[in-house]
Write a structure and sequence with these properties.
Length: about 575
């Protein structure tokens, strides 16, 4: 319905704008061809950590058994023999118990692993005391330091590192002070030199520090690699989602615009040119002869004239649109019939472009622009609701950013598949009516719908406008409908910088259960405005948190309930 290109879409907040290909997204459940939620780095690393822990414990158990035998092999009776035996025995027993405990990954507990790590450090220090404070035995501490330095818990890594470093330092100081007799160790120093002991201690401490630093650097490098991989995967899946949406737009675009009424005179109108075509009809720019005013004439396509349902929908759109009073609903001023019997409606001629055009140009709107879009569309939906009408096909193609004389406003188009609440739905026979990506879950199931179906669709439009990514999309309509009914979209905060309260409002408006959804479009618009100002009602916060706990972002509710 565009007659000229308007200026650029309303600028986004600078804080909300993502540059170039920086838009990221993930597919969940059925939003791709059988793909699942992208596994996050922490879950992968936790599985790796559990496997690495069990491997270390096997090594500790083997070393403990060999160590207990080795402690009693030397004939020399060192003062540290009993201490080393006790500490190594306790560590050996705890290690065997944890090996059995952690056979079930669900029972993995980092606190227990930390206790075992501290016991290992104590065992090595006790053995060093027995064998010789300045013997190579102390280098076994590097294994434990490196293992815990690679772990997910920085606290555990620092705890083991400090225990090893401080523990060995105290042993060395006691030895240098003569409180530990180095001449009675298994590897005895007959004539210890203070300078040699200081040098050995310094070298050992530096090696322990270097080991810990290398472990933490390796950990950071691993997390960085996972982060880059996940961002790349989101980019790819984001582009896939946009391609799915573009493919759907292309399919709707149809053939070239060839106007069968161009240049004709119909009643009191001179038809100028065709400016739009859809599966159901064609839109022409025309001039009213009497007033010289430009209008739009929307004709029902001749190919569907013989279908009573299509004809009824067209006439109902004209009736509904002409009865609704809102500046945010396209104005219909009359109807007529063409020379071939095709009915048409006389509409205000809108200058500008629809939301889908703006999203192709700008990828997404800013948060403030989305809030204004929601506010204006909510005004139109409220007028429809008060008249007992459900639109049922709210989507970017049916939201037009019209340029008026002094301002621009959003207008809702196409009430062709709308439903009157007080009239039985005889046109659809219980089928799912609308555009799959923007249907409500109850619509997707072919169930009875009310105003809350339009609220859900407005939420999907807001998600698309705010994040730059369709909430529900797939290569085919069946998978898309499954996503609508069962899959939560990607958490908006992963795609764009927004407040937690805005995320909560989006969770409520996209609730699968309409009882947990906003009851009106105006309530959604008000809550979204308050959320952006971080003034969201506390009751709505609690409702959203409970909803997300039951069905988190990016999950399939059927799968999530089975795994819970």
């Amino acid at each position: 319905m565009s007659v000229r290109e308007p200026p650029e879409a309303e600028p986004s907040d600078s804080s909300d704008t993502l540059s170039g290909s920086g838009l990221t997204g993930t597919r969940t459940g059925g939003t791709g061809v059988g793909t699942s939620v992208i596994t996050t780095a922490p879950s992968i690393l936790q599985a790796e950590e559990i496997g690495r822990t069990r491997a270390l414990m096997r090594l500790v158990a083997l070393a403990g058994a060999v160590g207990l035998i080795a402690i009693w092999l030397p004939e020399r009776i060192s003062p540290g023999r009993m201490l080393a035996t006790i500490v190594v025995s306790v560590t050996f027993a705890v290690t065997l118990w944890l090996l059995v405990e952690f056979r079930d990954p669900e029972r993995y507990d980092r606190r227990k692993v930390l206790v075992q790590g501290l016991l290992c450090a104590a065992s090595i220090l006790a053995v060093a005391f027995y064998v010789g404070v300045f013997s190579p035995a102390v280098m076994a501490l590097c294994v434990g330091i490196y293992f815990f330095g690679l772990g997910d818990s920085a606290t555990a890594g620092w705890a083991v590192f400090l225990a090893c470093v401080i523990g060995y330092f105290l042993l060395a100081v006691l030895a240098m002070a003569g409180l530990i007799h180095t001449g009675q160790s298994v590897l005895a120093l007959k004539q210890p030199e203070l300078a040699s002991m200081v040098a050995t201690t310094g070298v050992a401490e530096v090696l322990l520090l270097a080991t810990f630093w290398m472990a933490r650097q390796s950990r950071r490098a691993t997390l960085g690699a996972f982060d880059r991989l996940e961002k790349a995967a989101r980019q790819i899946k984001k582009r896939d989602a946009l391609l799915d949406e573009a493919r759907a737009d292309i399919e709707r675009a149809g053939a070239a615009l060839l106007g069968r009424y161009s240049g004709h005179r119909l009643g009191g109108f001179e038809v100028i040119e065709m400016i739009g075509r859809g599966a159901m009809g064609e839109v022409y720019r025309a001039r009213e002869v009497e007033t010289d005013q430009l209008v739009a004439l929307k004709f029902l396509h001749p190919m569907v004239l013989e279908d009573p349902a299509h004809l009824a929908r067209f006439l109902r759109e004209a009736e509904i649109a002409s009865s609704l009073k809102s500046e945010h609903i396209v104005r219909v001023s009359g109807t007529g019939t063409g020379p071939d019997g095709a009915p048409y409606m006389v509409m205000e001629l809108l200058q500008g472009n629809d939301l889908s055009w703006h999203l192709r140009q700008k990828k997404r709107l800013g948060v403030s622009a989305t809030i204004e879009l929601v506010r204006q569309v909510a005004d139109a939906l409220t007028a429809a609701d008060e008249a007992g009408i459900v639109h049922r096909d709210l989507k970017p193609q049916n939201l037009f950013y019209a340029e008026l004389t002094s301002r621009r406003v959003w207008k809702v188009l196409d009430f062709g598949v709308s439903k009157m609440n007080d009239v039985a739905s005889t046109l659809t026979q219980g089928a799912a009516v609308g555009t799959p990506s923007y249907m409500s879950p109850e619509q997707a199931r072919g169930q009875e719908v009310d105003h809350r179906a339009d609220v859900f669709a407005l939420g999907v439009v807001a998600y698309r406008s705010m994040t730059g990514r369709p909430a529900f999309t797939a290569p085919d309509s069946v998978t898309t409908l499954y996503n609508v009914a069962h899959v939560q979209p990607v958490r908006p905060g992963e795609l764009v910088r927004i407040t937690d309260d805005v995320e909560r409002v989006m969770a409520l408006v996209l609730a699968k259960d309409r009882q947990r959804r906003f009851s009106s479009a105006s309530m959604f618009a008000l809550a979204l405005r308050d959320a952006a100002r971080q003034r969201l009602d506390e009751r709505l916060r609690r409702d959203a948190d409970a909803l997300l706990e039951a069905h988190p972002w990016g999950t399939d509710d059927l799968v999530f309930r089975r795994s819970a």
